[in-house]
Amino acid sequence: MKVFSKEQIYEGDKVTEERQKLPPSELMERAGLQIFNWMHMRMQGAQVPIHIFCGIGNNGGDGLVLARHLITHGYNVETYVVNCGNSRSKDFLTSYDKVKEVTKKWPQLLKCESDFPEIHKDDIIVDAIFGIGLNRSIEDWIKALFHHFKASEAFTLSVDIPSGLYTDKPVEDVNGVVKANYTLSFQSPKLVFFLPETADYTIQWEVIDIGIDREYLMTTDTEVELISKNEVLPIYKPRTKFSHKGDFGHGLIIGGSYGKIGAVQLATRSVLVSGAGMVTAYVPECGYLPLQTSLPEAMVMTDIDEKKITDINFDITPSAIGIGVGIGTDTSTIQAYEAFLKSNKVPLVIDADAINMLSENKKLLKLVPENSILTPHHRELERLIGTWSSDFEKLEKASTFSSKHKVILVIKGAHTITVYGQKKFINVTGNSGMSTAGSGDVLTGIITGLLSQKHLPIEAALFGVYLHGRAGDLAVEEFGYQSLLAGNIIDYLGEAYIDLFKQPEQAQEEVKTEDKA
Ligand SMILES: NC(=O)C1=CN([C@@H]2O[C@H](COP(=O)(O)OP(=O)(O)OC[C@H]3O[C@@H](n4cnc5c(N)ncnc54)[C@H](OP(=O)(O)O)[C@@H]3O)[C@@H](O)[C@H]2O)[C@@H](O)CC1
Ligand SMILES: [K+]
User: Fold this and answer.
1) What is the pLDDT of residues 151-204, one digit of tens each?
2) Does this model's pTM top 0.95?
3) For residues 116 and 113, what is the distance between their CA atoms, to the nearest angstrom?
4) Domain locations in the chain as residue ranges
5) ipTM of the complex
6) Strand, helix or coil for residue 438
7) Which of 84, 320, 379, 488 has the least C-beta neighbours within 10 A?
8) Ligand 1 pocket test, candidate residues 2, 14, 58, 138, most atoms within 8 A of CB
9) What spacing in Å lies between the alpha carbon of 163 and ligand 1's midpoint?
């Protein structure tokens, strides 16, 4: 699913109005009506007090359209205009006038704290104060209003985006943002719903279709995309009856050191389970026995050194290599890594200390082949690209790094983001149970396995991250968040593949929403 920027959303509005020859404020009418339908379906006329707080731009206008429909259908509605400026938008004013047609109860004007209404815990707040048009910091009395919402503990439904969140800038003051229970976002989810610093401002979100011009939506390229089942299904390669293991490639995992052989076991097993025809592990001597006994399906080659990698020298022709899990940063390992990078021609997945060695020795970066996949977690990324002051800066720096070095960065996190030049792909699968030792080694193995099956590097990265997260989601149902082990993710990888062809995602989402309502 595409995630449109603020500018693209405004442009979409304009194009839609022109192409569909819409009367003024028709899109606002659609937006308000859709939110009404959403609430009406769930509330079925219940007389819970609904407090609708409207700003003076189009977000506020949406709130007024909603108020009108709720009033017409006999709901218990109080409408307020948060008087935050003088520049009321044209469509806001149209909606304001239309409220007059259905009630004699005028929206109340709020100008300062003493105007705030009493809100009870069981009431509902609709936050239609600021939408994507927020363009400056918020006055203190409006922050106090947001605090008033929070203190009431009432269910808060935000229209389009929690008021106070910018679409393209970090939050200035955490007290200046509404904490929403649910956000109904028009046409496209907003990037801030997925970033660690801002995702918490809405517990759940849903996209509402307001009929923006289809062609515009289809043909407009976005910098950000959400990766869910629909996006990865076309990457899946069905097998033919007469295929043999040679068709699915030979993955090689290079890594391990004394005490960290387990990382190689996890990654190596993941290569096979993701579908590679063959796998070899290249480890220090001390890894030979554990690997041969725990993973009979794998082949093992060893370094001359007992405890660490000192010389990467193999006589096989792998189709993809994953390097770095448990490898350490011993001087002899760095030398071996440099020599390896100088001669290697095989597509690479680079993880853990193989990333750290690049950060410490920038000349090695030049040896990394184009389209290599780097899978850093937070600290590894910081060492690689430098620190950042916000999620936005992090993404910008990651994009610059990816473009400059022509590599794919898989930034691991609650929503793993794959950065490929200017493009950012946000993964939707996965859960906090996967924050556990070895989870990253499994990911490295899966991506290496997909790469050895001749997927394009970007496809291997996106598909691998999706499958890893989906396997974790399925595994957590059996093991629970606390007890999930990285090995369990591997055990559920087969289920994650099978799940790709279970019911279409749309139907699942709908059921989920109904359940929660
Ligand atoms: N396709 C779609 O998605 C559709 C979107 N629609 C809806 O339109 C919304 C965008 O509407 P919008 O552009 O009118 O701006 P909005 O978010 O209401 O901003 C607030 C207004 O207040 C002002 N202002 C800004 N910051 C301020 C501050 N700190 N303190 C005080 N004032 C401040 C600023 O005006 P200014 O004072 O700068 O002139 C601005 O006009 C969008 O989120 C969605 O809900 C639908 O109606 C139709 C289809
Ligand atoms: K809002």
Assistant:
1) 999 999 999 999 999 999 999 999 999 999 999 999 999 999 999 999 999 999
2) no
3) 6
4) 2-221, 231-237+247-508
5) 0.97
6) coil
7) 379
8) 58
9) 10
